[in-house]
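Box 3.1 A note on notation
Throughout this textbook, protein chains are presented in two layers. The first layer is the amino acid sequence; the second is a token string describing backbone geometry. Keep the layers aligned when reading.
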Amino acid sequence: MVDERRFKQAFMRLRAFRSHIFGSITEAMVAEYHGILDALQKASGEDLCSFRISPTVMLPRVESQIRYSRSVARYSDFETQYTSKKFCEKAIFIECVDSLIAKLKEKPIMDGRWKLDRTDE
């Protein structure tokens, strides 16, 4: 069953969320996006799992590299330190969010009773 009120609320949350994406995409931001996605899925009855961020794209970042040289071998080695937190590449994240918005605007989820405003971005 489609819940029009909850769908509208979740869609407006998604739009507001999209307009405030800046900086690094942290695990907390991905979790918030997944919460909005779950609300949209529950309200619309649509399967939106393909718009989820895969855990495989969540990676730690390089925090520092320490260079040390071995005079005997005459070459340098690097030791790389990674962050404990994971991040998503911004382009991948924005692509998922924008694709979801485009899908929701393209197909009238509410069986013709309510259509999303296609002109406003």
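Helices lie at 4-19, 27-44, 90-106. The chain has a mean pLDDT of 84.
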